[in-house]
Amino acid sequence: MSVHRLTLGDVLDEHRRGRPRGTAVVDGDVRLTHPELGDRVDRLAVALMAAGVGPGERVLWLGQNSFRVLELLLAAGRLGAVFCPANWRQSADELAHVLTDLTPKVVVWEESEAVEKARGQVPLNARWVRSGEEYESFLTGDGRALPGVVSAEVDDAAPVLALYTAAFDGRPNAALLSHAALVAHSMALLHVRQMEDGFTFLACGPLFHVGTMMFTLATFQLGGTLVFTPAYEPVEVCRLIDAEKCTQAFLFGPMIDGLVQANAGGAYDLSSLRFVSHSPEWDAMITVDDSPWCASKMGGYGQTEVGGMLTFLGLGMGGAGYAGRPSPLVHVRLLDADGTEVAPGEVGEICARGHSLFSGYWNRPELNEAKSRGGWHHTGDLGRREPDGTLTFIGPKLRMIKSANENIYPAEVERALKSHPAVADAAVIGVPDERFGQSPKAVVVLAEGASATAEDVIEHVRGEIASYKKPREVEFTDAIPKRGYTPDYDALDERFGGGAYPGA
Amino acid sequence: MSVHRLTLGDVLDEHRRGRPRGTAVVDGDVRLTHPELGDRVDRLAVALMAAGVGPGERVLWLGQNSFRVLELLLAAGRLGAVFCPANWRQSADELAHVLTDLTPKVVVWEESEAVEKARGQVPLNARWVRSGEEYESFLTGDGRALPGVVSAEVDDAAPVLALYTAAFDGRPNAALLSHAALVAHSMALLHVRQMEDGFTFLACGPLFHVGTMMFTLATFQLGGTLVFTPAYEPVEVCRLIDAEKCTQAFLFGPMIDGLVQANAGGAYDLSSLRFVSHSPEWDAMITVDDSPWCASKMGGYGQTEVGGMLTFLGLGMGGAGYAGRPSPLVHVRLLDADGTEVAPGEVGEICARGHSLFSGYWNRPELNEAKSRGGWHHTGDLGRREPDGTLTFIGPKLRMIKSANENIYPAEVERALKSHPAVADAAVIGVPDERFGQSPKAVVVLAEGASATAEDVIEHVRGEIASYKKPREVEFTDAIPKRGYTPDYDALDERFGGGAYPGA
């Protein structure tokens, strides 16, 4: 056993000793101290092992936010296994892709038609455990005596968390993050957010997304308190901030406006929240925080593959580049297509090395080789170094649409469009949208002799992928202009009103 | 090359790009930007390589504080070599031990009689470079053309810094710290000290000691500015804080009093210093800082072998234990002699694992095996976990007394003795006991003008710790013989009848 090892389980075991009375998690009626959480994780690890989960095996969560997401992550970590909280709002077809790709040994799920449909589609040698009573019974061995403790020798370089992201070829890939990467990213957040003893985080964004997950893990690393709520609901979020004296929550623009509206009468005391300045009404309700993270309004550049944030505006405040400077545990190069560093002022691909980087995608050996060529992780995003050394994010190397803070990859929507029998070819661009920043617009070529309305096509996409990715508008045309095999997005933007892309 | 690697050289290369205009070091007339520092380090690495320094070889510094200490550390790191800044104020005999033990390939030195004498005593196949002009000439290849760049593939688990410490057998040992350990320890300091962009550290304590070195390295990690001064000189320290707008300096109690005195007239503006509250005069001169590090008055527990600090009071403020809680990158157990964890409230050896731990002592395979048995680093110090989970440092585990099969650590009993108001100093030894094997005996120095009987003192100890640990006998004396800060137990045994120690 290396004297340098630090797994998530080691962190948990430290908190059991160092914070025996501290509240680790709050979720509805559930309230657990660190030792209570530790005991449940130990039992859960034994139950998972008994269900066939060994080193490298996968455990899947299909449900809303829950403290069980943290329990399952930590229990999988005890076994050297990988835990994946997946987007349960996906279509049955998308969920079936996740099941087929990940082949989990245990699936913990909440009631959903799409989940049940996907389960029927994919024959899996897996134990399905319904969240709630069945989960509690599973955790205690279903009444059977289970072996006492798991004592696997887990290396902290082993992957422990898988998050689906990056639909390069139209299908998402699961980014694998190791214990060491998650711990390193948490340290960067502790530093930039100046998280202190007693930090309480309200996980009101989706836990299958790195944005909420990264602060959940940093709070865990610190030994703070995690408050879970199934999903963002403004009045309930206000109530929880007041009741649990939350220090931070997963919030941005429109979500903050929702809270201001929900708390217009001042029914809830939100002053425990030390957060980002947003509007006079908001600033009067909370305590505006001056940590580099809050003062920079959470600016920076990140992606799931780097554990969350790669650069922080708070580490380059007042600089020319909006993405600031890298986390102290990574380093960044801007490389051209040949792997040569570009000069300051020139645009190159943002490439990175360091402690918080992922361990590749699950089950994608060729993609992994390409993404890590030359010993640098290639983010697939473009950046520029300003004369003062700070970084600016330019945009994805391929296109990406950002709508209501969700990433939409044109390739993924195009794939769904093209699966409609009447569609011969399709491309998707982002058009400026007052409410969501951008919204996706489809440009469609119909098959000879076929016919379909815009409504038909949109409805078809809604059945294929998450609803928020569906085009809001459809324009029919004779041919998609191309650059090689991919659509000529610049030409499409010019002709069909595209714009407002992230980083532009 | 691992995509996760982060050596000190990688950090330097990041700063060259990310902070092209930032001041990296100030030392007298020398003032270098990050790119200038980087260029000098590159040249120095080539010069060291040409002088025979390869992976694993040692480079020794014998001199006062200088920016060259940082340059040599970074250049050695480029080569996978180890840099050691040694205490140049040692005697010729002590310096000869360092030379013999470390067998460096290059020694950079400042004028000193002891150094010259030691050099004469130890025949070494080493290049001796006098700091100053000779060093500058060495750095530029002494006029000869040197190969361009060093491109060694250095693993960040490779040791890069050696600091002499821990004279277990009367001779100090060099603790080896890897790139990864130094980076991890720096991250903990960035977090607890809440170091922000623009941090400027004045290295006015000795760089051969981990206390000054750890903040030097954290400032380097952050890309802040390092101000070097040869040694602590109150007026010069005040001048530098004012001139360079230093954010922090290496200072504690008596050093702070010296600055208050030196700046009594208010000649220097020290308000840039964000530091620990100390006295009304001091607090009026500086900006009192509320970061966990400063608010806790730099409390905690540390040693060179853990990279500096293992625990921080600032991570357990208001807790019962004066040492607070561990750094987020380590975990701690209190173990008995058999490696079993002791219960909360019991005294055990402080043992640790985690990212900032050292890689063993140079050239001490047997000691290393003993210190890392069971996969835990054994600090050689005693601690206790309080009911709230925080930690208390009890004292060094120099001796153990075995009485009626119970382990009794003198440091714990001494601590209880010294909490009696009439006791100025105390030491505890084990004396042979027919019935119990050994029994504890106290040697006590009373405070001036105070009086107490043996019974008083024993009764007091009984109220503080477990009854079996109380001394059976008390002898009063004028002074406790010392070795450094700790009692000279051998002398005490001889004078007061100690013996029958376990394993003796």
UniProtKB/TrEMBL annotation, chains A, B:
Domain AMP-dependent synthetase/ligase: 13-362
Record-linked CDD domains: PtmA
Residues annotated as domain AMP-binding enzyme C-terminal: 412-482
Source lineage: Bacteria, Bacillati, Actinomycetota, Actinomycetes, Streptosporangiales
Official protein name in the record: AMP-binding protein
Pfam families reported in the protein's UniProt record: AMP-binding, AMP-binding_C
